[in-house]
Amino acid sequence: MTLAHFAERNRQGVWSAVIGVFDPFTLTVARAIHEHSKPGRDLLVVVTPGENTLLSAEARAAMLAALRDVDAVAIAEPEEARAVLNGMPAVEVFEDPAADRERSQDFVDFVLARQASASERRG
């Protein structure tokens, strides 16, 4: 679903929206998404394309859509997402690019540490 289509169909809804790259999709990402789930509000996740991602935006969107807390998922550029969502009266928008980058870097560090550990055991 496009974000414009979502906004058109849900203009009167009460939503929380989380914008991010969410790559790679890990348990930490699922927990971060869960933190924005609130009673009385539906939860929209907007996946942004990002640069040098492991998975396509479509693949990340499909996995995020499978989370129990998520009611809708859209793919959009960050600027488009902010513009569309800020035009909706009952939407609370959350975006934390620094945390997104940190989660990605933590994953890279984990993989590199595992690789180094495996190399040491073999060597």
Overall 3D shape: elongated
Give the low-pLDDT segments: none
Structural class by SSE content: alpha/beta
Integer tally of domains: 1
- The strand line-up of the biggest sheet is 3-2-1-4
CATH topology: Rossmann fold
Radius of gyration: 16 Å
Taken in chain order, the helices and strands follow as HEHEHEHEH
Mean pLDDT: 90
Output the CATH class name: Alpha Beta
Please give the count of helices. Answer: 5
What would you call the quaternary organization?
single chain
Strand content: 15-25%
Biggest beta-sheet profile: 4 strands, parallel
Question: What attributes characterize this protein structure?
Answer:
Rossmann fold, 123 residues, alpha/beta
Describe the overall structure:
It is a single chain. The protein has about 120 residues and is an alpha/beta fold. Helices cover about 50% and strands about 15% of the residues. It has a single domain, classed as 3-Layer(aba) Sandwich (Rossmann fold), CATH 3.40.50. The protein is elongated and about 60 Å long.
Short description:
By secondary structure, this protein is an alpha/beta fold. It has helices at residues 3-9, 27-34, 57-65, 78-86, 97-122, and strands spanning 15-20, 42-47, 72-75, 91-95.
Topology, element by element:
Layout: H1 3-9, E1 15-20, H2 27-34, E2 42-47, H3 57-65, E3 72-75, H4 78-86, E4 91-95, H5 97-122
Parallel strand pairs: 1-2, 1-4, 2-3
